[in-house]
Give the backbone structure.
Amino acid sequence: MARAERASTVDDAEVERFSRLAATWWDPRGPMAPLHKFNPVRLTYIRDQATARFARDAKKIDCLKDLRILDIGCGAGILSEPLARLGASMVGADPSAQNIEIARAHAAESGLTIDYRATTAEELAAAGEQFDVVLAMEVVEHVTDVELFVSTCASMVKPGGLMISATLNRTLKSFALAIVGAEYVLRWLPRGTHQWDKFVTPRELETAIENAGLQVIGERGVVYNLFADRWQLSSDMDVNYMLVAARDK
């Protein structure tokens, strides 16, 4: 009961920061350009993990059909839309009403049906929502309480379901590349997008997930290939990494 009364894990300052960028989410050359470039590798990872878990053919255009997927911290829907195109029944949630407004408008223009909600993980969990796959992509490093947030997300994973997360490791290398390099030198991201002390190590995330009753079944690093101009999976988890966990059936 004490946990249910705890404050939301939403960081209001972070919500305000991303709300100011709402109108630029779908501009591939705007402030969210790095996220657009990152999208293919995370989309493929999610598709492959989900199809393997639920015995689907990843080559089929509707390989995620009938799977109910939550994209928590969905922003304006950059990830929710391609997942919906693969057949998933998508729920996109974000505490920013501005982001959700943009997401709904873009989905309508694209002819996609996505259940977008201006809400939080805590509110969804309290309502008893359950999903085959819960996604926490590039959001763990923006919450106020990682363990509580992970526990809340995990509580919405159905028996046999998955939770997939992408975030940033807290290392000197990530400070050099993700903060100094990406925000100050290359200016890929607006300054202040990330706070290094809020980055989460794989071990910290694994522990939070396991404490929430899920089992970590896979993890991969993600690195930027300068020559190919694209992000790709790697064994190097020093900066960006993705992790998948499952609930027993």
